[in-house]
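Anyone else keep sequences and C-alpha cells together like this?

Example one:
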Amino acid sequence: MYLKRLKDLREDHDLKQLDIAAVLNITRQQYSLYEIGKRSIPTEFICTLAKFYHTSSDYILELTDNMKPYPKKHEKI
C-alpha cells in the first residue's frame, strides 16, 4: 500500500511530518493521518508530493517501482 511509500520518501529526504505538512499547507496531525492510513490522501496532495519529491504519482501509489518522473508533455501550437 502507498502508505509505506509516503513515509519512505519522507524519511529518505530526511524530513519530518511537519515539513511535509507545510508543503501541503495542512497540520502535522492531518498529514500523520494520511501516512498511517486513517484518512485517504487527496489526489491533489499526491500530485503535489510527486512534484516535490521529483517522482511520479504512480511511484507514490506503488503502481511502479521506477522513481523517475515521467517526461513532461510539450504542447503543440
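And example two:
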Amino acid sequence: MRELVEVIAKSLVENPDEVVVTETESGGEVFIELKVAPGDMGKVIGRQGRIAKAIRAVVKAASSKSDKKVVVEII
C-alpha cells in the first residue's frame, strides 16, 4: 500500500522529491502517513478534501483482499 500512495502523491505534487510515505502496522490496522512539502499540501488535499477522499478510496479498494483496515493520514 505504501508504494501505491507514494505513486499517487508524486504524480500530484510539484516537488515529488519531498514526498515521504511511512507505513506502520498495529494489530489488524495499517497506518500510512503521507508527508508532502507545505506548498503541495493543497494539491494533495484538494477542494473540500476531494482528492484526499479519492486517495483513501483507492487504498481501501486495493486493500479489500486483505483483512486489515488501512488508514491514510496526510501530515
